[in-house]
Amino acid sequence: MKKYMLDMKVTENNRLHKNYCLLKLTNNEALPEMLPGQFVQVHVDNSPTTFLRRPISINFVDRTTNELWLLIQLVGDGTRRMAEYRPGDSVNIMLPLGNSFTIPADEDKNQKLLLIGGGVGTAPMLCLGDALKKAGFESVFLLGARSKNDVLQLDEFTKLGTVHITTEDGSLGEKGYVTNHSVLKNTHFDRIYTCGPKPMMMAVARYAAAESIACEVSLENTMACGIGACLCCVEKNKEGHHVCVCTEGPVFNIDQLTWLS
């Protein structure tokens, strides 16, 4: 898929939480094709400690407004500078990067699909849910967070499917981790997609393997270049090779990884 370097304009920057903002950007021309699970690399201006681009998952692509949505977690100088962007600001973006989640074949329309996101890992689940809905599939979402205040974009998820929630403190949905939610006990799913903290994804992968459920995970390894040159994001696969998450991922079938060994 062709990659682009675009100077995009900020249309909105909404603070969803003290640690998260939703950045919306547009372009003078129609946005290029982007697939669920892919990411972008953002050049951060006016941040003296940020020398490299920042990888951000594609949260949503709104074709009606020609906007790209990026859900940003404020964890360092670069992302905190991005939280200060204002409408009209220009941001240089390299996109789209990486591979994507697998959309089931048309003959599998009756499959039960579960999309599990934890923390900022819910970001690509929104884009995936939108793509699945447009392809005629029904999705079930399972969102995990520390508390009700950390559950992000709930209104957007409810437009796309049934939503279940877990919070560590029990302030919203069921108390505990996503792998403890009752929906996993009451429903058999044919396919699971997940993104979030690595321990969560590994727990989901073990559950999926034990239940013989196809499962894809989106890894969040540290990335610097986004094009496979710097080797910062390598992950060991089942064959014993080290692969670049930014080019051969970020989405992997769990059968490709060493997590189940």
Describe the structure.
- The chain is an alpha/beta fold and 261 residues long.
- It has 6 helices and 16 strands.
- The chain has helices spanning 77-82, 123-134, 154-158, 183-186, 198-210, 245-248, and strands at residues 4-17, 20-26, 39-42, 54-57, 60-62, 67-73, 90-97, 113-118, 139-145, 161-167, 174-175, 191-195, 214-218, 234-236, 242-244, 251-253.
- The strands form 3 sheets. It has a 7-stranded antiparallel beta sheet with strand order 4-3-7-1-2-6-5.
- The longest helix is centred in the C-terminal third of the chain and has 13 residues, at 198-210.
- The protein is globular.
- The two termini are 33 Å apart.
- The mean pLDDT is 95.
Indicate the topology.
Blueprint: E1 4-17, E2 20-26, E3 39-42, E4 54-57, E5 60-62, E6 67-73, H1 77-82, E7 90-97, E8 113-118, H2 123-134, E9 139-145, H3 154-158, E10 161-167, E11 174-175, H4 183-186, E12 191-195, H5 198-210, E13 214-218, E14 234-236, E15 242-244, H6 245-248, E16 251-253
Parallel strand pairs: 8-9, 8-12, 9-10, 10-11, 12-13
Antiparallel strand pairs: 1-2, 1-7, 2-6, 3-4, 3-7, 5-6, 13-16, 14-15
